[in-house]
TrEMBL record:
Source organism phylogeny: Bacteria, Bacillati, Actinomycetota, Actinomycetes, Kitasatosporales
Region of interest (Disordered), ranges: 1-21
The name this protein goes by in its record: IPT/TIG domain-containing protein
UniProt source species: Streptomyces mordarskii
Gene3D superfamilies linked to this entry: Immunoglobulins (2.60.40.10)
Domain IPT/TIG: 12-84, 180-262
């Protein structure tokens, strides 16, 4: 009668794997194997020799957990069973941040399930990052810079690859932002309460407009976005008179410091 001595998933090198992987059954008296019993599923072997049988884990395998494997000969005799563990496919559910700077990237925590055997996080066309998760439901990584970005915002899917496969692309997204740039302010001088028109590029989801005075003190301004190239800000109170600057901040970082005089 056939005897199974070990099971080896050729992808993981262990007795763990996912649907689609090839598994080697090692043992003795295996040459008459007609089928592999993968839990309740009957699988046709790919190759059969006296000491080794190979088969492909069926897509009907359970999502995760232990499965008993045995072989049955062409005369109906069934071998002993050994356990095999189906590794669950990872899923992603969200990120700790929604955007990062295209110039620098940044620290991000990815949330989801079945991360423990993870080897890398993929960030769309930007690149892959090696990871070693210590928790099943989250992993922190550094999103790489998107140095070739042209548009102000580039949305990229975030996935994770584990021994159980790669999570579905498109369910978790991160936005890369180019830094904004100020080209002019009109008028170029003003006092507390004056409205200033700021022209430039990359004014997408602006979160802060900052005035810096001649003493290097700063104050955030109330502002109204008009378009991706135009916004209106009100000169804040409490700033010293003299030559200062204005900057605009988005997820892409700070803009250049544009000259502005407090009168």
């Amino acid at each position: 009668m056939a005897t199974i001595t070990s099971l080896v998933d050729t992808t993981t090198g262990t007795n763990q794997g996912k649907p689609g992987d090839t598994v080697q059954i090692n043992g003795t008296a295996l040459s008459t194997t007609a089928r592999v019993n993968f839990g309740s599923a009957a699988v046709t072997p790919t190759t059969v020799t006296a000491t080794q049988v190979t088969f492909v884990i069926p897509n009907t395998a359970p999502c995760s957990g232990q499965v008993s494997i045995s072989v049955t000969s062409n005369t109906g005799a069934t071998s002993n069973t050994l356990p095999f563990f189906v590794i669950a496919t990872p899923t992603t559910t969200g990120l700790s941040v929604s955007c990062v700077s295209a110039a620098t990237g940044g620290a991000v925590t990815l949330f989801g399930t079945n991360f423990l055997t993870g080897t890398q996080v993929g960030v769309g066309t930007v690149g892959n990052v090696a990871v070693t998760p210590t928790q099943p439901s989250q992993v922190t990584f550094t999103a790489p810079a998107n140095t070739g970005q042209v548009g102000t915002v580039s949305t990229q899917p975030v996935t994770i690859t584990t021994s159980g496969g790669t999570s579905t692309s498109g369910t978790t997204l991160i936005d890369y932002y180019l830094s904004p740039a100020i080209t002019s302010v009109v008028p170029a001088a003003g006092t507390d309460g004056d409205q200033i028109t700021i022209n430039g590029t990359g004014f997408v989801n602006v979160d802060t407009v900052t005035f810096t005075d001649s003493a290097a003190a700063t104050a955030t301004a109330v502002f109204t976005p008009i378009s991706d190239t135009l916004l209106v800000a009100t000169v804040p109170a409490g700033l010293a008179t003299g030559a200062g600057t204005i900057t605009v901040h988005t997820c892409g970082g700070n803009s250049n410091a544009q000259a502005f005089t407090i009168t």
